[in-house]
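Reopening: Chemotaxis protein CheY still failing for me.
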Amino acid sequence: MDIVMPELGGIDAAQLMREINPNAKIIFATGYDLNESIEEGVDQHEEIVLHKPYSIIQLSQTLYEIFNA
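Support: Ran it again with your exact input. Result attached.
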């Protein structure tokens, strides 16, 4: 899920999704450096954040780790 989106940002969307399913697995993606305003909503120790541009190998490894943990 992209962190910065025009209508509903990824952090807010993820929060709504987790209200429905607290165990939802979410991968955030961003083309920005995580600045202070974005960092407030993303706990980098708990959340997975891929920085654009990322490779298919990075995405595949991340998916594997999430679903095989």
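Strands lie at 27-30, 48-51. If you still see a failure, please send the error message rather than a screenshot.
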